[in-house]
Amino acid sequence: MPDADDLALLEEQLGRSPFPPARIVCRCAAGRPVVVEQAPETPDGRPGVSVLLFAMDSAGLAKRLTEVAPSQFKHVFFAGSGSEGNDTVIRLVRRYWDLMGQPQRKTIIGRWNAYHGSTLGGASLGGMKGMHEQGGLPIPGVDHIEQPYWFGVGREMGYTEAQKDEFGLKAASWLEDKILELGPDKVAAFIGEPVQGAGGVIIPPKTYWPEIQRICDKYGVLLVSDEVICGFGRLGTWFGCEKMGFTPDLMTFAKGVTSGYIPLGGVMVGDRVAEVLIDKGGEFAHGYTYSGHPVACAVALENIDIIEREKLVERVANETGPYLQQKFAALRDHPLVGDAESCGFVAGLVLVKGKAPIELFAPELEVGMICRGHCFANGLVMRAVGDRMIIAPPLVMTVADVDELVARITKCLDLTLADVRARGWM
């Protein structure tokens, strides 16, 4: 546990930074009184929780979400987080197939190195092996395929950078292989993040998701998009599936729906699933204590209004996202960077020992953590996922802010390079 001095130092360091760690949840930026003021209160100042208020705010938010989501989504199931949302996905998927007269279709396929939450269900759907080792996961009925990571997987298989599209098709084919291995009559759904977030901002080749869609359609498998990171404008579209070119049956959301001001998550339920549950299922015996909490829903409504009013999605799509892509890609010229890529307002780079040919640092050296230390000391927070450094800045950033961000990254890369050379690692 950190002591008071540790916490004071961290607060002082992050206080200097326009890029603090919570930005991955942030769309409209922190410190907006107008958002905080939306939290309803009782006369004595406690948050209001009347049944009427629940109904008014949750119904209003559900309507608002269907207005910004892809057209197949007309129903919402609220939860308190992305983890709860993905547990709800498991329940929805299995209930759907029960009602369709195919109860044996229970297996959901995810991907290694994906992240779908920390509950038993969410951590099982995700492919974080370290999480699986701490609890006997995954639960039965969950399986995984390899991730569509060109630098870490495709390159090792012999695909050149010019062959990324071919690798994308190959990576998607692993889903069909797994469906055939398990039996098409046993597979219920496939779940994935449009861009993997916690796994290191893994941006798939553009051929990947359309081919995943084709395979799911071929075998009647439900397609689930985990939009906890990519939703609400982060990729330059309201939801990441729109950017990547696929049409999911279910979408998990959280984080960006309130810009992290207050916890809220849920699942957008597409027509294919909703119609079966409504017409054949009766009551869906599932819910959480704080599903559709009025304070959370009121904050989410204001947050969405700000995103729309300030045209933050359009800004990322047409101005700041392309500018970040240009500036971030230039970091490839740094002696320490083996790859640098971005999509909208997520980006990642890989720290390498050598560039021609690519040579990685030994994992035990933890060069990513050394780089992170220099970032923290210089008012910048970049997350280290092994030796891959990732960012997800707030959507309100300007072009000038992007310049400042990249300048700080460059400085910290220079400091890391000097550090590893001094240690004799390069």
Q: How does the major sheet shape up?
A: 7 strands, mixed
Q: What is the count of DSSP helices, taking H or I runs of 4+ residues? A: 15
List the strand order in the largest sheet. Answer: 1-7-6-5-4-2-3
* Structural class based on helices, strands and sheet pairing: alpha/beta
SSE inventory with pairings:
Blueprint (H helix, E strand, L loop, with lengths): L3 H12 L17 H4 L14 H18 L4 E7 L2 H18 L7 E5 L8 H6 L3 H4 L9 E4 L4 H5 L9 H19 L4 E6 L15 H12 L2 E5 L13 H5 L5 E4 L11 E6 H10 L13 H16 L2 H18 L7 E7 L2 E6 L2 E2 L2 E2 L7 H11 L5 E3 L2 E4 L7 H24 L4
Parallel strand pairs: 2-3, 2-4, 4-5, 5-6
Antiparallel strand pairs: 1-7, 6-7, 8-9, 9-13, 10-11, 12-13
Helix pairs in contact: 3-12, 4-11, 8-9, 13-15, 14-15
Key descriptive features of the protein:
426 residues; alpha/beta; 7-stranded mixed beta sheet; 15 helices; 13 strands; 43% helix; disordered N terminus
How would you describe this structure to a colleague?
With 426 residues, the chain is α/β, with parallel strands linked by helices. Helices cover 43% and strands 14% of the residues. The chain is built from 15 helices and 13 strands. The protein has a 7-stranded mixed β-sheet, sandwiched between helices. Strand 10 and strand 11 form a beta hairpin. The longest helix has 24 residues, at 399-422. The chain is globular. It starts with a helix and ends with a helix. The relative contact order is 0.14.
